Amino acid sequence: MLRACIECKKIPAKNEYYDIDIGRVCRSCFSDNTSDRVVKPTFTKKVCLSHRCSTYNMRQMGAHEMPWCDIVSVQTVGVQKPNTQYDETLGGMNGNIGRHYYKDWTVYCQQKDKLIHAQKDWAKYRNTFGRKRPARGGKGYAY
Known about the structure:
Layout: E1 17-20, E2 23-26, H1 27-31, E3 42-48, E4 53-55, H2 58-64, E5 71-77, H3 103-130
Antiparallel strand pairs: 1-2, 3-4, 3-5
């Protein structure tokens, strides 16, 4: 979803904008009249576009990252606080975006466990009944 700058109403290029509490501001509008304004520090946050969640803590994003996540970096002016309530569609709890809150991770783990169990069962079956043994006293295999 592309959002326009709240000052000039143009859609800024990638990495050429700041997200602030009231919307998105492009760099050119943000740097105009900087002598009149108080300059706030910028922070970099990681955003998962697949699950629509974000964090400033890189360790939390490492604990969230799944093979199908699309994670990008976004610069923000000031720190934007996450929702502090549990949202079933987004996952997470009180800003924690660990993967155990997401249904797709649970399904992935269950399928992987089933696959590992099936492989072990197949190896056990193959070792017990799989190979044909040569006939006693004969030169070939018993059919």
